[in-house]
Design goal:
This protein has 3 helices and 6 strands. The chain is α+β, with helices and mostly antiparallel strands.
């Protein structure tokens, strides 16, 4: 079931982030993966634009969520600034995407940026952790 998997690519990847730690404590790392699209630097955190026609990849991890997935989404939706009742004002939107994981394509939820990104610098590697290491 697609709702059991979440693809993350940014600040949630770091256990020093309390929300990342929460995710790691309440779910299971399933695999590394990537989505087609472009990763941008907002200054404080990355923002992914999912685009199945893009030649670029955004790298991250897939987590399998357990039976408490609704509680996990409630916590992460707030962190990501996502409100399904007010999509236009949400900074990120949780949506389904195709994640490449080795030779497999997995349907996962992810959070994509919901603001203008024309002024943001792209992260050419598509890898936020690598980018932050400089």
């Amino acid at each position: 079931m697609k709702e059991n998997f979440l693809f993350i690519y940014g600040s949630l990847l770091t256990p020093s982030n309390p929300f990342g730690a929460y995710l790691m404590e309440n779910s299971t790392l399933w695999s590394k993966g990537c989505i087609k699209g472009t990763l941008y630097d907002t200054g404080d955190y990355p923002a992914a634009i999912y685009d199945t026609a893009s030649p670029n990849l955004v790298h991250g991890s897939i987590y399998e969520l357990g039976p408490n997935r609704h509680d996990i989404f409630k916590v992460l939706d707030e962190y990501e600034g996502f409100n399904e009742d007010h999509l236009e004002s949400s900074e990120f939107i949780r949506c389904e995407c195709e994640v490449l994981a080795g030779n497999e394509v997995k349907i996962c939820w992810t959070y994509v940026y919901n603001r203008s990104y024309a002024h943001l610098p792209a992260i050419p590697s598509g890898d936020y952790i690598l980018y932050k290491k400089g």
